[in-house]
Amino acid sequence: MTQGIRLRRTHMVADTIRVPGGTEVVLAGWVQRRRDLGGIIFVDLRDRTGLVQLVFDRERGTPAAVMEAADHLRNEYVVAVRGEVVARAPHTVNPKIATGEIEVVVADLDVLNAAKHPPFPIEDGIDVEEPVRLRYRYLDLRRPQMQQMLRLRHQAYRFLRRFLDDHGFLEVETPILTKSTPEGARDYLVPSRLQPGSFYALPQSPQLFKQLLMVAGVERYYQIARCFRDEDLRADRQPEFTQLDIEQSFMDMDEFLHLMEEMVAGLFREVAGIEVATPFPRLPYREAMERYGSDKPDLRFELPLADVADAVRGTEFRVFQDVLARGGVIKALVAPGCAGYSRKQIDELIQFVAPFGLKGLAPVAVEEGGFRSPVAKFLGDERLRAIAERAGAQPGDLVLIGAADRQVVLPALGALRNKLGHDLGLIDTSQFRFVWITDFPLLSYDEEEGRWVAEHHPFTMPRWEDVPLLDTDPGAVRAQAYDMVLNGYEIGGGSMRIYRRDIQEKMFTALGFSREEAYDKFGFLLDAFEYGTPPHGGIAFGLDRIIMILGGGQSLRDCIAFPKTSSGADLMVGAPSPVNREQLDILRIQVRQPEPTAPKA
Amino acid sequence: MTQGIRLRRTHMVADTIRVPGGTEVVLAGWVQRRRDLGGIIFVDLRDRTGLVQLVFDRERGTPAAVMEAADHLRNEYVVAVRGEVVARAPHTVNPKIATGEIEVVVADLDVLNAAKHPPFPIEDGIDVEEPVRLRYRYLDLRRPQMQQMLRLRHQAYRFLRRFLDDHGFLEVETPILTKSTPEGARDYLVPSRLQPGSFYALPQSPQLFKQLLMVAGVERYYQIARCFRDEDLRADRQPEFTQLDIEQSFMDMDEFLHLMEEMVAGLFREVAGIEVATPFPRLPYREAMERYGSDKPDLRFELPLADVADAVRGTEFRVFQDVLARGGVIKALVAPGCAGYSRKQIDELIQFVAPFGLKGLAPVAVEEGGFRSPVAKFLGDERLRAIAERAGAQPGDLVLIGAADRQVVLPALGALRNKLGHDLGLIDTSQFRFVWITDFPLLSYDEEEGRWVAEHHPFTMPRWEDVPLLDTDPGAVRAQAYDMVLNGYEIGGGSMRIYRRDIQEKMFTALGFSREEAYDKFGFLLDAFEYGTPPHGGIAFGLDRIIMILGGGQSLRDCIAFPKTSSGADLMVGAPSPVNREQLDILRIQVRQPEPTAPKA
């Protein structure tokens, strides 16, 4: 093998179709494939830009020693070659690769490194278990699809930074070693060696720092920020994730939302060639819940929930009457073209909503000139007709009626709506339907804690006209909060912030904190509010998910260079891992055994 | 106070000099100063772009209610104003501010927030203890100097990213929650909840990940990466710091260093208007040590160390003879114009070198026609003349001679050289003198551990011609490593990496690792090397320090938005801090008391 670099690369593979025929190039990369056709050796060479065919042929001038070396090449060997770019004979043109009209006749070859046979082929569409891909991530990342994902993320970041730079936003870094914040998810902790018994926490978001930057007069801030949450990892969560974190002063909510729309529309246009209309529609939280059963509705299909309470009021059907009597709701959802569903198919739908607490669905099959339904005998045709009408059902459709408390029915039918959208092929996957969800409730009542808790976080500004309600009817206060939703995913969320100490204190009171507790938890922020804090607000976008959507991917793990499994493990480097006793001693911490070997006195 | 934003900002303060006289503007910002001159109120309004004078004057049309409101303004109040930009009368022009030729006559005012009197004035050159500044960092950051630092960092990042984008480098994020690495500084640890007893470590650098990205075929990578080291914090260290981390494949060292020079020269030109000549000079490590007593020499002044061993060989001066007999060195340094130094002044210099282990300095005052020196009686005029000549001393200069082991004399005189450079005003502070230090030794012998250890890290490539010496004379092996040094600071460092498993194993053997230990520590990297690893290398730049130098600052803390003290504390948010018992329980760790209350059996 060659020691060091003798042949200095002059071109990337993709450049070879842009040079005149006969140009001498030096290329470097990996052997994708090698074939020996009667003494002529063909090698597909891969670099970051693509594939090109190398030809080793005595007749066309490849020296004997180079032929000999080429004979030993295997997949994934690392090579540099010097050769001449020539047009291929018409019948050998390969339309499947970008460089398929040319080939490189090799005059010189350096084998830079050998390679063992890889555990899976370096190509897309492979059928390999994910743990194997993650363990050999450095090979997995060689696949074109993963390289494309890395490029996409790079381009997205570049666009976003330029947009924000051009609009006067300053990139500022905030600490990773910071303070454990109450009122959030679980923190990752970092023991301090210099202050034993004390801990840093990794930030769940730079929330407090970005607000303090507004107090500091930065006026417009952004950061592509790593955030951390020690949650029980669902299939598609990561313990560390990347946010585009933005905060601004002196803009009102309208102005800010328009700017963010412009940015996101620009991103989709620039990076993926997708045209997105602005302004984005806005949907108040309550309307989103009533109509789609979700605060992140997928608007690529309509299929709204219909309120059919009026149509069934006063019947003898006990289930509906009981629900209405205790203030519940009765909602209907249409499954288009499903009038012929069997009992078994309907049971599957009922089983699907069960985990949401919804105990049943009343099906009504709409047929030409009539209805079929187990509840027909209670309701009668006229009421069934009213239901079908309200639900917008046509003959051939199946109407599914859910009756229970509002907080049960809406999410259950919302999820069912999504399921039907997917299963019945109602979703136009070429569409990108953005919507702002606004007017979230500021507070919700936590039965367990027996107090009001912040829906977003305790720094969210109420609507000005609702501020007095903080004292009298906290549940009715609407927040100046907003989520950007795309195709059923929440891709960003934020709010205008409280910037006056009097309102912040009102908020803490509503949350049930004493003055002392509030100061204990957020004293530095309350202090800061007294020194001239401008009106401000911001947003954070989940970049991993945006990259996933832009790249047409299915899993966050495929959009992160070195992701962790659902148990938080990095299978490649083997993290987390046990550490030396001395490392813990120096931090003055110890691991507690799950089962003490001896009972304590 | 106004609820929300009634007056929507139309211009920034700095824009006011770019609009025609008579333009109506809405400005927003902070009250820097308020003066009442006989019923006319002048307010200096500050936003991120500067200061402008607001005039509240009944005679010029300010409504009475606005006059009344303006009367209540105090420093750091947050306001929005609508008014007309007008030229100032010539005798009232203020040349000290950029907008000094105009003022804004106010027609409308919103007080957005009030402010308490700040604990220190919001201006540069204040004399405030650093802990107070750090506690009220959100006020400290309002000062023009700090705002300028934030802008400078932003501009630097933008330039660096664009340069690297334009040169085909891909920005890739690497994990923050990763694996504890042996052979480095102390790691920050993060207990894992899902795998109790196991820990993540925060990365000291993305070293292994960036090498794995090269294995993955990314070819050119960069990241502005947060790094962490749990070291005993010296005055100017931070537990978390920011590196520009770069790695590339298929370039040799020359090509790569030239690219990095081009980038850094571009940065200085674009961000600070400083022209830097390229290519940078290169100085082998050995030469740097012999000539300047440092591997990060400040080349803004010359003042080299001179080897004067030959000039004193064979004298009867026992100190020198002993040193030479045991293989030590005798080096001289000139203190220009210091021939008249008193005994006391010379003693101070001797005390300065003492902590380096150098027990004394022999002074030789060079005078017109002769020498004054306590060692004159041992050496005689002829030898003193030879010494002065070698050291390049002129009449009026003081020559200082150090004699001891090489590893004592060189750093001691190197530090003394820096001290003299500063104290004698030899440094042209307008200069930016870059130099590459190259050819570092690959290994150094650790007496304590009784083995060779890596000078840089165990993945550094030896020079090819030195590879065989790994087996026979490890101390003589030179590394393909390089530091970029500017004005006495190491601002970047890197190396070409080992990319072949056989050489990596040789390296581990030289470090005294068994095959098993090596695999245990770095198995995933050794594995990766077998699947087609390209030749690669990289560098990491210390961005905090570069920003410090570009901004003319003195302390890293002034270049970081939210820095920590030398005990690792964030005085603003109060981190690190004690956490709830439940937080520790859930992680299955506990804090050990410093003094056990009862002795263990």
TrEMBL record, chains A, B:
One Gene Ontology cellular component annotation held by this UniProt entry: cytoplasm
Pfam families named in the record: GAD, tRNA-synt_2, tRNA_anti-codon
Catalytic activity: tRNA(Asp) + L-aspartate + ATP = L-aspartyl-tRNA(Asp) + AMP + diphosphate
InterPro entries attached to this UniProt entry: Aa-tRNA-synt_II, aa-tRNA-synth_II, aa-tRNA-synth_II/BPL/LPL, Asp-tRNA-ligase_1, Asp-tRNA-ligase_1_N, Asp/Asn-tRNA-synth_IIb, AspRS_core, GAD-like_sf
Known EC number: 6.1.1.12
Alphabetical list of Gene3D superfamilies matching this protein: Bira Bifunctional Protein, Domain 2 (3.30.930.10), GAD-like domain (3.30.1360.30), Nucleic acid-binding proteins (2.40.50.140)
Binding of ATP, residues: 229-231, 238, 490, 542-545
Lineage: superkingdom: Bacteria
Subunit architecture: Homodimer.
Similarity field: Belongs to the class-II aminoacyl-tRNA synthetase family. Type 1 subfamily.
PANTHER family, per database record: ASPARTATE--TRNA LIGASE, MITOCHONDRIAL, ASPARTYL/LYSYL-TRNA SYNTHETASE
Full protein name: Aspartate--tRNA ligase
Organism: Alicyclobacillus cellulosilyticus
